[in-house]
Amino acid sequence: MNEQVDEFEFFLEKIWSDGFPVVTPTEERIARILGATKRDPEEVIGPIPPAMETATVRDVAVHALMAGCRPEYLPVVIGAVELMLRDEFNVNGVQGTMHGVAPMMIVSGPYAAEIGIHGGNGCMGPGFRANATIGRAIRLILTNLGAGIPGVSSMTIFGMPSRYTYCLAENMEDSPWTSLAVSKGYSADDDVITMAMVESPRFCFDDVSNEPNRLLNGIADTMTAMGSWNMHTRSDMVVAMGPQHADICANAGMSRADVHGRLCEIAGRKVGDLKNGGNWRRERALAFPIDVDPDDDDFFIPAIKDPEDLQLIVAGGWGPCTAVCHGWSGGSRAVHGRYQV
Amino acid sequence: MCSVHDTIEFEKLGIPSTTIITAAFKKAADFQFRGNGMEGHPYVVLPHPVSNLQPDEMRELTLQFVDEVASHLKT
To answer: Please, what's the largest Cα pairwise distance for chain B?
Structure first.
């Protein structure tokens, strides 16, 4: 790079740019970030679809660096890429889809807290370097190595703000329950990432309910839009209860499993209602992995077809709000696993 | 776009294969075939959208393209 090239403009003009400047990946900076992993920089992580460019540990490190990651964030980024490439997560499909879902990373365990992945006030918005840059690293890998570029190989209609970055922790300080990872069988000391292909959140505000039944009715309603693919296919969903809402349930004696089960039970719509708009097709209902009668207008279609598909977490700051993140239509199953620090 | 990858893998195995897409996915299909060294591989483009067609409409549309599909599968 000579003096006549503006390093920021150089990368901003790349077709894979997310529209923001990147940290220039000098050899010195790359060496520094690679110091945060014991893994061989030439170790192959895997091909990133649909372009199928191979991601090595070094490649992941370069993208993490460009995204603005501190070196200590690298193990999380590597762990996320490994998870993301599992067949059942179906990154290839999401890279080309008309939808705008993005891989949401929920990072659990002590290392997340150590490096500052935030789960409290504002955790889904700007202001937290670990959240912002770890999620961004994943997006840069998807656009540069995978070529998931709108109008080129991605037919996403709108994209979504969560395609800039989508990474958070749970608010374990204010949560009345154990973590999502513990609910999946990990220990509280395990460093775990859960990833789900979901939309940006829509909020359920409820500052009226003081008992769980009414509260969960409102949250369940937010899970069941006609235009949500969750109503018309099997799909994952993330429900991030703010601690204030979680407390209402916990104070009434409900465990995390009780809330999870209740939401799975009541979130849904009747066939007669679903026929009036959105993506309803009889053939889609018949393809559900559950028994349905698409010709009975009173038949109840649940938003969650398999309890495994609902990722329930406690996150955000104190206030009367729960965030609901709807899923995709093309067959992606949430993935989770430990990552190496 | 998984169907494009399926076509690519079938062709690698020597099994004639084609992909059926709607027009909105043409750029994505071109990209994937090009990226996998199969630029110009024939595929079928239906008008977009098809997801809102009734079964009899879909049947009628299919009949218009069946010969084209068959032509792509001849070795």
So the answer is: 37
Q: How confident is the model at residue A5 (pLDDT cuts 50, 70, 90)?
A: confident
pTM of the model: 0.94
Using the Cβ of A147 and the Cβ atoms of chain B, whether some distance falls under 8 Å is answered with: yes
Helix (H, G, I), strand (E, B) or coil at A54: strand
Return the C-alpha torsion angle A27, A28, A29, A34, nearest 10.
80
Tokens coding A180: 């999502």
Question: Nearest residue of A to residue B4 by CA position?
Answer: A50
By residue range, what is the domain housing residue B60?
2-72
Statement: residue A1 has pLDDT above 60: no
| Residue A239, phi then psi, degrees to nearest 5 | -115, 115
Instruction: Report which of A255, A241, A249, A242 is spatially closest to residue A311, judged by C-alpha positions.
Output: A241
Q: What is the ipTM of this complex?
A: 0.84
- For B37, name the nearest residue in chain A, comparing CA atoms only: A51
Q: Do A153 and B24 touch (CB under 8 A)?
A: no
Question: For chain B, what percentages of helix, strand and coil (3-state, to nearest 5) are there?
Answer: 55, 10, 35
Of A20, A30, A34, nearest in space to A67 by CA: A20
Does residue A152 register a pLDDT over 60?
A: yes
Nearest to B31 among A92, A93, A147 (CB): A147
Amino acid sitting at position B58: M
A162 touches B: beta carbon within 8 Å: no
Domain count, chain B: 1
Q: Mark yes or no for CB contact B31/A152 under 8 Å.
A: yes
